[in-house]
Amino acid sequence: MKYQLIPALVLIASTVATAQMASHAPTNKSALPSTQMAAVQVSGKPVAKVNDTVLTDKDLLREMYAIFPYGKQHNGFPKAQEEQIRQGALQMIIFEELVYQEALRRKMSVPAAQVDRGAAAYRQQFESPDQFQQYMQTEMHGSQQEFRRQIERSMLIDQLLKQEVDGKAVVTLADVRAYYDKNPARFQLPESFTFQAISIVPPPNSTPEQIEGAGKRADAALKQAKGTHSYQDFGLLAEKISEDDYRVNMGDHKAVGTDKLPPQVLDAFKTMKAGDVSGLIQIETAYTIVRLNAHTPAHQRSFEEVKVDLRKELQQGKSEQLRMTFDKRLRAKAKIELV
Question: What is the pLDDT of residues 102-116, one digit of tens each?
């Protein structure tokens, strides 16, 4: 059992970056300074061939930065996630090229006036004319024709995806209601407690003297905590004296389910009402003081509560499924080589 709380049972949450589908639409964030490009050793070498079109490591890097924008700030990617990001970006640039080629095969087109508007809007994203000119030189080799071709390419991809994905991914309110009625367990919220905490934690492998010192600090902290009369008062005290990571957020643990709470804390909550401050709660050699802010019994979320977010979720899931299906169809009739 893992507990989300406290001193002796501190959980270190590791964040794992997940590659997301990045947009093919042009943006000046795609214009990579040459220093960044050099730092990751981009040379323009091929990484894939889609029918007769060669995709390069420059295309790949641009998409990697679209998936993981923080890479630009740090001039690289976390080693643990770099390969995952690279593979996600590679699949995306191949997919975009397949969509573009399919749009050309269908003889789809974009009116010149629309391309003009797209080019003007894109240009407005740059901070200055000089920045745009730098982009033109580094990315478009100074060619206005190539610049317009890229704008048109993005628009054709958009146009076809609207036909094959967006236009078919509509989820009606009736669809949402049907899903809600068929999956009641998903909308059942467990009992939870919203609270703040002040924790006093002796160092690992503490000596008896250090444990005794923690006890004295905890007694002093309790006296101060009992003197607080609001969320703000308790939170400011937590920021000042608490010894756990939650102190930076006024000691606020937000809503925590009963299955994530240490038994000692749960027992204390059973005798408290909103606004109460507990006595000292000892968990192994550590101490905590909690302020109960709210107790939420287990309950079913209503359809009205969930319908907006649920509709977005179902529509996104449908879009992703349609995109995957479309990708498979395009790949089935294409020749794709990874270099």
Answer: 999 999 999 999 999
